[in-house]
Amino acid sequence: MTASAALRRLTVPAAALLLAACSQIDTGNVGVERTLGKVGTEALNPGVYFTLFKTVDEFTTKEVSFQLNDMTPKSRDNLTMKDVDIDVYYKTTPAAVPALYIKYQGDVVQHNQIVQGGTKDLVVAFSRVSREAREAIYKSVAELDATTMHTKRTELSEMVRARLQQELEKNDPGAFVVTAVNVRNLLTDPAIEAAIRSRAETDQAIEKKRKEVELAKAEAERLIVQAQGEAKANEIISASLTPSLKEIKLAEIQRDTALALASKPGNTVLLGGSATPLVNVGK
């Protein structure tokens, strides 16, 4: 065997051993070293690391989503919801991963265990996050009425997100960021559905009556204005009549009356000097 052949035979196993002693951390993840059971306190950035005498666990810091299904929380009006399904999205702060790993070593799962089609990357403290999320949902639902909750999905989503973020900050400040909450399903039982329909019908009837009252009020105000205008006109006309003009108007009225009577057969009308009509009714 030549020297070069012998060198090649030695090089191949050595290269294989070298590769086996290296660990790669992908983009969007961080690594945490363990040496003889001791966990490192610094997060390793994406890259390749020589790990012959230590282990590097790879944790995802990408956005993680999970679903909470078939929940039956009680609303503010003490009615039990039939089915509430909610999606939660959150991220883990890279620098916080080592401390979280030390604190929650018994609470580590693979990403594909919580997300269909996920990766083998590790997710730390998932049980705690999901538990706090469920609690935040139940508390948020308890602040809304069942009969109107279906119209407040956006408000409920924000209530859950803010409450979950607040709870996570209490024990692990800066470790998690709740990016979004989506109310996927929000069902009430049939009795509540009937109450919702009844309330909607009542609201429509009230609105109809309110408009009728407004129309009646507007018509009454119009009639008042009209009556006030007519009264003012009469007042002006009455004030403009002098005593002589009043006598003339009275004579005109008497004349018109006399002519009307005289136009009928058998009637005779005599007008005296006093302008008082004398009527002789014939056969």
Verbal overview:
With 283 residues, the protein is of the alpha+beta class. The protein has four domains: 3-58, no CATH class; 64-189, 2-Layer Sandwich (Tetrahydropterin Synthase, Chain A), CATH 3.30.479; 190-240; 244-283, no CATH class. 46% of the residues lie in helices and 24% in strands. The strands form five sheets. It has a three-stranded antiparallel β-sheet with strand order 3-2-5. Strands 6-7-10 form a three-stranded antiparallel β-sheet, with helices on one face. Strands 1-4 form a two-stranded antiparallel ribbon. The longest helix is centred in the C-terminal third of the chain and has 51 residues, at 190-240. It is rod-shaped. The relative contact order is 0.09.
In short:
Helices cover 46% and strands 24% of the residues. With 283 residues, the protein is an alpha+beta fold. It has 4 domains: 3-58, no CATH class; 64-189, Tetrahydropterin Synthase, Chain A (2-Layer Sandwich); 190-240; 244-283, no CATH class.
Helix content: 40-55%
Q: From N to C, what is the helix and strand string?
A: HEEEEEEEHEEHHEHHEE
Task: Give the strand tally.
Answer: 12
Walk across the major sheet and give the strand order: 3-2-5
- Beta content comes to 15-25%
